[in-house]
Design brief:
Distance between the termini: 149 Å
Strand order of the largest sheet: 3-2-1-6-5-4
Number of domains: 3
Low-confidence stretches: 345-349, 550-560
Number of helices: 15
Mean pLDDT: 81
Number of strands: 15
Strand content: 5-15%
Shape: elongated
């Protein structure tokens, strides 16, 4: 009786011993998987921060760093009683993981303090990739060994359970009762394992879905980084818009949209770029037609008739769910324009996708606004460096550089360049009689007329005071005389109205050409300037050509 009564406890102890080994092995594998996942999260957060420089991408990194040291310690503890080979592999894995963490911390520090240029050599060295590859390799080997040991433990467990049942069956009625209890415990264990297996399957599916989203997110980050680098290049405003629309089509697939920019008068917006195959957007719109501009924030609307719909949006097609976004392009407190995004139903059925599209559109709009603002600033600085602020004509330095370049080109191509020096007659008298504001108005009106008469290839600049210099490309002496006479006649018929005064304007002109007067910039300008003074001495309001002597213009004192 005593032996029969002791069979059940001994059998239970025998089975539970193997079950404990099985659970320990499962814990080792779980700890190994958890450490690997945390290391991957840290690497993902670091990569996002290195690419974009934005602190919010470090959230996965900081979350992983909070738990990773304890998880590595647990992993080392759980393998402490394993065989020497597995302990050695775990030590190598821990060493590589800590080296990887050092590399991640170094790149984050360099990116934050010194920028992307400093961290690029560290990333290019592939040290972090080597450490991560070693971690994956060792983890894979440990997983394979653990799976074999777990399978062996399962087999041993089933073997012991079978013999425990056999011993219980052949024992006394008390042993049968104990065997029934053992069977009940075993059945519960199997059910728990089944539930655990189902839970693990669901977790695996979630991990797979998360990895897919992570890959898509990484691809979006890479494309955003590419867009940022492309739009930081020295480009014109139109080129910036072309790049922005190109990346909108890539980052917002199955959508259509347009980018509007304010006119200089800031009273209307003009269509500047578009993408997608949706309805053609309106070419011009008033700011009041968009709720996004009126509210000063992103405006999102769908197909519901109860929502605020912008007047510039086309009516939504019947039986379709559609999301539309109006994003003001704002940089440094200035509203530059509007980005309108229209998503079709196939890509925005669920709110999660619509929210993702809105977040991506916000990121694109912010980047585009900064790039457009920088492009406008570069254009403004360029204009300020080469143009004279009062008249809007080119300044003297730009004219001298252009003349030197065009003369060299004319010599290569057997062409000629002419220079016309022009001076407004009696301008000092206008200033003294009517005041400097009126004199400035006369200069501006004369500059506008000059710009309207010249060709797009010609260069007009304010030489100084009331004097202007004109560089006429591919224009010989006779053609330059005709153009100068046209300007002279036009200015004579020009009346400037300012502050209640009607002022008539005349000018004197001096013409010189590279084919007859001089080949060097200084000589050509001097010849035209000498001809200008000849015209003034002859009575003003006329055109005079440089005196030709041996294909050179001779100064007055030399001719005398």
């Amino acid at each position: 009786m005593t032996i029969s009564a002791s069979v059940a406890p001994l059998s239970l102890w025998w089975v539970n011993g193997m079950r404990e080994q099985q659970q320990q092995q499962e814990q080792r594998l779980l700890s190994l998987r958890r450490a690997q996942e945390l290391l991957l999260d840290a690497e993902t957060g670091q990569r996002g921060f290195v690419i974009t420089g934005r602190e919010e991408f470090l959230q996965p990194y900081y979350a992983a760093m909070q738990y990773l040291p304890d998880e590595l310690q647990h992993l080392e503890h759980r393998y402490a009683r394993q065989e020497q080979a597995q302990r050695g592999m775990v030590q190598v894995l821990l060493g590589q993981a800590r080296l990887k963490l050092q590399e991640l911390a170094e790149t984050v520090r360099l990116r934050r303090t010194e920028g992307f240029t400093a961290v690029e050599p560290v990333v290019a060295s592939a040290r972090g990739k080597h450490h991560m590859d070693e971690v994956r390799r060792i983890a894979s080997d440990l997983n394979e060994r653990g799976a074999l040991e777990l399978a062996q433990a399962n087999a041993d467990l089933r073997f012991r359970m079978t013999w425990a049942v056999v011993f219980s069956v052949v024992s006394t009625l008390l042993t049968l009762c104990l065997a029934g209890y053992l069977f009940k415990v075993t059945r519960r264990t199997m059910q728990q394992r089944e539930v655990a297996a189902q839970r693990a399957h669901r977790i695996s599916e979630k991990l797979a879905s998360g990895m897919t989203r992570l890959q898509r997110h990484n691809e979006e980050l890479r494309t955003l980084g590419e867009m940022s680098r492309a739009m930081q290049a020295d480009m014109t405003l139109l080129e910036e818009l072309e790049v922005a629309s190109l990346f909108c089509a890539r980052l917002l697939p199955e959508t259509s949209g347009a980018i509007y920019l304010f006119r200089n008068s800031a009273d209307q917006l003009e269509l500047a770029a578009r993408w997608g195959a949706g309805p053609s957007p309106c070419a011009v719109m008033a700011p009041s037609a968009c709720w996004g501009l009126r509210l000063g924030q992103v405006h999102r609307s769908g197909g519901s008739a109860a929502e605020l719909r912008c007047l510039h949006c086309h009516p939504a097609p019947a039986n379709t769910a559609e999301v539309r976004l109006c994003l003001p392009l704002t940089a440094y407190g200035e509203v530059l324009g509007l980005m309108h995004v229209q998503g079709v139903s196939a890509s925005v059925q669920d709110d999660e996708t619509a929210s993702s599209m809105e977040a991506m559109a916000r990121a694109i709009a912010e980047q585009a606004a900064l790039s457009l603002s920088n492009a406008k600033l570069r254009q403004t600085l360029r204009d300020q460096s080469i143009k004279e602020p009062l008249t809007g004509l080119f300044n003297r330095r730009y004219m001298e550089e252009t003349l030197r370049r065009e003369l060299l080109r004319a010599q290569r191509n057997d062409m000629c360049v002419s220079v016309v020096m022009m001076d407004l007659d009696h301008f000092k008298k206008i200033n003294d009689t009517y005041g400097h504001p009126v004199g400035d108005a006369v200069l501006c009106r004369a500059a506008q007329y000059i710009a309207s008469v010249l060709r797009a290839s010609d260069v007009a600049c304010r030489w100084g005071g009331e004097e202007f210099a004109l560089v006429l490309m591919d224009c010989d002496r006779d053609a330059a005389m005709v153009k100068a006479q046209q300007l002279c006649d036009g200015l004579r018929n020009l009346t400037v109205l300012q502050d209640g005064h009607a002022i008539n304007v005349t000018a004197s002109f001096g013409v010189a050409s590279s084919s007859t007067d001089a080949q060097e910039p200084e000589g050509l300008v001097a010849a035209a300037d000498h001809a200008l003074y000849t015209a003034k001495r002859a009575g003003r309001d006329r055109v005079a050509a440089a005196v030709i002597t041996q294909s050179r213009a001779i100064p007055e004192h030399v001719q005398a």
